[in-house]
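Quiz preparation item.
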């Protein structure tokens, strides 16, 4: 990514989440103590914002407006209406993006596995989807 190390990213997150103005952020980043102690990978506000803009955007949002008709009447004797915006993402695309993300590779398991409390294998542990019998049935 555009940020050099974890502490660099944590500083960016804190700066953006703080209520500091862009002028205050720029002043903070140009302080000698900031430059010498935290060694940020950006020189000032402009450089920081360019790095933020370079971050991957992920999936886009879709908005659908619904008109809801109520059961109460307005001053003209007509049913009250209200427009509601529903924002959503394509769930299949979300799952596809998660599965393709290499950051999650070590945390995913697709093959079924049987876990037991001890070597006698008398008591099975079912604590994840892939340890349940239906996972075996599904992939058999």
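Solution:
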């Amino acid at each position: 990514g555009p940020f050099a190390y974890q502490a660099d990213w944590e500083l960016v997150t804190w700066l953006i989440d703080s209520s500091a103005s862009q002028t205050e952020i720029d002043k903070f980043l140009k302080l000698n103590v900031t430059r010498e102690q935290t060694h940020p990978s950006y020189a000032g506000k402009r450089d920081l914002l360019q790095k933020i803009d370079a971050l991957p955007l992920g999936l886009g949002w879709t908005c659908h407006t619904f008109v809801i008709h109520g059961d109460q009447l307005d001053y003209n004797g007509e049913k009250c209406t209200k427009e509601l915006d529903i924002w959503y993402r394509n769930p299949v695309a979300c799952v596809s993006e998660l599965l393709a993300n290499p950051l999650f590779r070590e945390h995913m398991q697709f093959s079924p596995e049987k876990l037991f409390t001890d070597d006698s294998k008398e008591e099975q542990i079912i604590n994840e989807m892939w340890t349940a019998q239906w996972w075996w049935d599904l992939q058999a």
